[in-house]
Amino acid sequence: MGGPLYIDDEKHEETDNFQKCSFKIDEVEYFSTENYYQCAKATNIEDREKIRFSGVGLSCWVLGAKIKKKKDWEMIKIEEMYKGNKAKFEQNPDLAEKLISSNGKINKGNSSDFWNIWNAKILTRIRAELRKTEEDLKVIDEIKFDMECYVNEKKKKKKK
């Protein structure tokens, strides 16, 4: 889920997963990061398209909560949120510039504890990937490692 995050105690609207913007992934147009994320849960095209055209706000979130999710959803959900946000910023230079120009720690927003932590990490990684300074390369590696650990933890739980 979304809501703007804070950087140096200032709300940054570009970090909101519900923010309306257009981008494509695999030649399919999405209308917000949350729109993409909810569509990514779908096991069939009908559900995906219903969510995709439902809008950018809570309507797509509500529909996404009602569909049958992919079996491996818990393992891939943070990667899907990363993928949606990365496409959003890569294809919307005005939003990318706002994120790149920020310097402070990206902090929690108005979401669940889980998503407050992971959205901050994901956006910190994307900001670092867009800037690519020496320091940013270390940040990228650290967050990639955290994401891999999350997946490995979910795989272990699934095997039990």
Question: What topology does this entry show?
Answer:
Layout (H helix, E strand, L loop, with lengths): L4 E3 L2 E3 L10 E3 L2 E3 L2 H8 L4 H8 L5 H9 L6 H19 L1 H8 L5 E2 L5 H19 L2 H26 L1
Antiparallel strand pairs: 1-2, 1-5, 3-4
Helix pairs in contact: 1-2, 1-3, 1-4, 2-3, 4-5, 4-6, 4-7, 6-7
Structure write-up:
- There is one protein chain.
- This protein is mainly alpha-helical.
- The model has no long low-confidence stretch (mean pLDDT 93).
- The chain is globular, with a radius of gyration of 15 Å.
- α1 (33-40) packs parallel to α3 and α4 (73-91) crosses α6.
- The chain has 7 helices and 5 strands, in the order ββββαααααβαα.
- A hairpin with a 2-residue loop joins β3 and β4.
- The strands form 2 sheets. It has a 3-stranded antiparallel β-sheet with strand order 2-1-5, covered by helices on one side.
- 61% of the residues lie in helices and 9% in strands.
- The protein has one domain (5-159): Tetracycline Repressor, domain 2 (Orthogonal Bundle).
User: Which runs of at least 5 residues are low in confidence (pLDDT < 50)?
Assistant: none
- Main sheet, how many strands, which sense, barrel? 3 strands, antiparallel
Supply the helix-strand structural class: mainly alpha
Order of H and E elements: EEEEHHHHHEHH
CATH fold annotation: Tetracycline Repressor, domain 2
Q: How confident overall, as mean pLDDT?
A: 93
Spatial strand sequence of the major β-sheet: 2-1-5
Residue fraction in strands: 5-15%
The CATH architecture designation is Orthogonal Bundle
What is the count of β-strands?
5
- Distance from first to last alpha carbon: 28 Å
Helix content: 55-70%
Query: Mind telling me the CATH class?
Result: Mainly Alpha
Shape from CA axes?
Answer: globular
